[in-house]
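1st attempt posting a full record on here, be nice pls
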Amino acid sequence: MIDVRTAAPALSQSREKSASTASGYGMLLVLVAALAATVGAITQIDRMADWIVVSWLVASVLIELFVLCGFYLLQPNQAVVVTLFGDYRGTDRTTGLRWTWPWMSKKKVSVRANNIISDRIKVNDLRGNPIEMAAQVVWRVTDTAQALFDVDDYKAFVMVQIEAAVRTIGSRYPYDDFEHQEVTLRGNHDQVGAELRDELIARLHVAGITVDECGFTHLAYAQEIAGAMLRRQQAQAVVAARQTLVEGAVGMVEMALAQLSAKNVVELDDERRAAMVSNLMVVLCGERDTQPVVNAGSLYQ
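the predicted structure (as tokens):
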């Protein structure tokens, strides 16, 4: 039995190469000379034979059209992909006025940086919570041949791959971790952003595109669970604050009892020690200001 995966041919990838083109300024001189020849032929209409003048005019006009059809202009960070009857002949990246054979097809491709902010999409994070995410990506074309010939529409391809990469990264990590023991989308922007960039570079390599910078512009819980998650965050914050408060109060009580015993300020038996601990914990852990109560009698009455 033949394995289909091994029998299938590998995807052929185009590779950019330099096109054989010429400077347009030299051909501009040829065009000026052809125009001068045309003017000269017109001035000789009454002095020379008609067939000579007509041949002269036709030749000069054909040269002018031939030269004019080969001109094209390249600005900085632009490239022209040259093809001949569908066959890729190379890419020209030299700026300025350029010229190539008129029967060559020429298509301009921008190699400048492009900035895209993706649409907000809903993703389930590692724990299954629905979250909303959007990314900002700076990308540019590095191989014009791959961008034009290996994908159908490289700009649409970039948009689709950005969404796929955001979904992949969003499902790989939890949105938040209150115990600060995991890598999270909200707490580790730099690490997650770098991983998103690596994911995009790997996905866009087939189109001859690289990613210079990327990051998240929107990251939040989805509306259907935003209220519940907010209450959960508030409850966990209250518990964490209480835990810190109790730990501090216990330390203060221990310090107070130790100093009282060390300086022999007062001798406390177990019952009075328990009462003092109770009073101090109430004072230190209470949410409201406590009101002192003076006990004029004895603790045992």
